[in-house]
Design brief:
With 307 residues, the chain is an alpha+beta fold. It has seven helices and 14 strands. The structure holds 2-oxoglutaric acid. 2-oxoglutaric acid binds next to β4, β12 and β13.
Length: 307
């Protein structure tokens, strides 16, 4: 992997920059969708890797939704590895998009592959991401996520749902709901009377940028197709967590942008097996995080080749 030369700052190609209209839509709705931001050719290695290794090197963990059904994710913060998953979140089009929307420099907060197997019942209950990031020490909600649809996502396989304009509600209290946590259903019903809920149906390669306070959820996968989203979250550089302990992985670290042809050139040494995932930190199945999420199945220990 080659880092960008210091004397030639990397910027997304003009065609990949968000337009003034797109930035206005994000300010109004709390999200904006850019169709085809990743071409089929660019997406191929990631899509193939996810299909070929749906356990993501054994690191995928199962988390309960409010009703105790499992959804599966793997999360990472470090982007210094020679691995595909360290390169994609550094690509200029996503970083520039985040900076254009937040109107200041950003760094990588964390990324996640969120996977729903065919016929899986797990859903994401309604929540704002900043409701959790607040407790991780960020003073401002100036954070967002750029999500790449790795597969086509529609209602049947559990696409994202977003409440337009909900980022203007500020941070909403989240409570424990069953085995998970989320927005109080009574408050949600009132919000839904005033705001439009949008089914975020995406073709593979479409990207949605959504604000840290935008309410979102997703349903079960009742189809015979997998549903994989790559969520890449960014924080404003001046909003690094103030907590002295426990948030070292989320503190500001300079982000070296990768050129926009990195996916085309497959500018990595390993695909899915070089990344230090959080899920390897060994929480016990059945444990409940401070946020109210219950871990149903931990990651498998990493198999180290012996020779
Ligand atoms: O992937 C999804 O359906 C939603 C994931 C999500 O909301 C989250 O990770 O906070």
């Amino acid at each position: 992997m080659s880092a960008a030369p210091q004397d030639s700052p990397v910027h997304a190609a003009p065609a990949l920059r968000l337009t003034a209209e797109e930035r206005a839509a994000f300010d109004r709705d709390g999200f904006v969708i850019r169709r085809g931001m990743v071409s089929p050719e660019e997406l191929k290695p990631l899509a193939e890797a996810c299909l070929g290794d749906p356990e993501i090197d054994g690191a995928l963990v199962g988390i309960a939704d409010s009703q105790g059904n499992m959804q599966e994710v793997v999360t990472w913060t470090d982007l210094t590895q020679p691995d595909m998953l360290s390169v994609i979140p550094r690509m200029a089009r996503f970083v520039d998009g985040a900076e254009d929307l937040l109107e200041r420099p950003v760094y990588h907060w964390h990324s996640k592959l969120s996977m729903k197997r065919p016929g899986s019942a797990g859903r994401w209950d309604w929540h704002q991401d900043y409701a959790y990031w607040y407790f991780e020490g960020c003073l401002y909600p100036d954070m967002l996520t750029a999500t790449i649809a790795v597969d086509r996502c529609d209602e049947a396989n559990g696409c994202l749902k977003l409440v337009a304009g909900s980022h203007k509600l500020g941070r909403i209290e989240h409570n424990k709901i069953g085995m998970a946590s989320g927005v109080d259903p009574e408050r949600l019903a009132l919000i839904e009377q005033r705001h439009r809920t949008v089914l975020c149906e995406l073709e593979a390669g479409d990207v949605v940028f959504f604000h840290g306070n935008t309410l979102h959820a997703s349903g079960p996968n009742v189809s015979d197709r997998p549903r994989t989203l790559l969520h890449m979250s960014y924080n404003a550089v001046d909003n690094s967590p103030f907590l002295a302990e426990g948030q070292e992985h989320h503190k500001f670290k300079p982000l070296v942008k990768a050129p926009d042809d990195a996916m085309l050139r497959q500018d990595w040494k390993t695909v899915l097996n070089g990344q230090p995932f959080w899920s390897r930190t060994g929480e016990a199945s059945g444990s409940r995080s401070t946020y109210g999420y219950t871990l149903l199945r931990g990651a498998r220990p990493k198999v180290v080749a012996s020779n």
